[in-house]
# Entry
Amino acid sequence: DASAWIIDSGATDHMTFDPMDFSHSTPPRRTCIANANGVAYPVTGAGTVPLSPSLSLSHTLLVPTLSNKLMSDVLSKKIIGRGTKRGGLYYLDDISKGAAHNMHHQSRLLYLAIVGL
# Structure
């Protein structure tokens, strides 16, 4: 499912290919992003992506040539939702309805409780 978010421990930023995901747009801080193989992809925008009423991804990059939406690794000790492992990738399935959280690129990020670990 291309609309699902994949949790990527190697991603430096949250990234989406869909401009309709953004609730607020800002100029991107970079013009391209490279994958692990060194292939560069153009960044055409940035902003805030709401995932639920209580969770937004700040500083998300718009990378139209991506085939999946990527959430960068999350490190703090608050559960924000559940994910499922499918084909070696972890997909965000369900977001916690707890207190509002805003995931900032520079801050310690929230971690996910992964189903099946």
